[in-house]
Write a structure and sequence with these properties.
five-stranded mixed sheet, 3 helices, 10 strands, about 40% strand, globular
Length: about 170
Amino acid sequence: MEYFLVLPDRRISNSIKLPVTEKELLAKEIFVIKVNKLADMNLTDIISIKFLFNTYFFLSEELEKVFRMYNQDFITIPTLIIDKHNYDLNKVYYIADIKATENVVANKFRVAKDMLINEELVIDKAIHKIHYEKQTFILANRCVVESILRRYPIGIYFQEVKVVGREE
């Protein structure tokens, strides 16, 4: 099976920046985020926010549906993002609360494309959250990636990773 990192696409200009605190994220409760001029921002399907050693992933409604389709025990926390000036404009995102799969990365690497994963540890589920040193990633198998691509995602970059023991 082929595996990919699901990453925010950094090439998107004027992507939404969420003014949120780690305390709000750790509360694991529904909350509202107010932003300036929501209509002028590019709303991507995945947003990552990093606080020191923790990374939090916000998923659009469409991406959350795909993740839920492949992982029923997947926990999400809804978040309403509203425009401070025009309360008619709003968007729902979901904070992905995925339990991390341990010891998946089988090598040391500098860039994500050089990551080597142990397939025996990820073959049981389609979507994983993995940690490597001070970084956190979402790892998905090919079926999930193809399902996401059929929905014409915005602002998602898929980076294929290598698998231990597979011939290249």
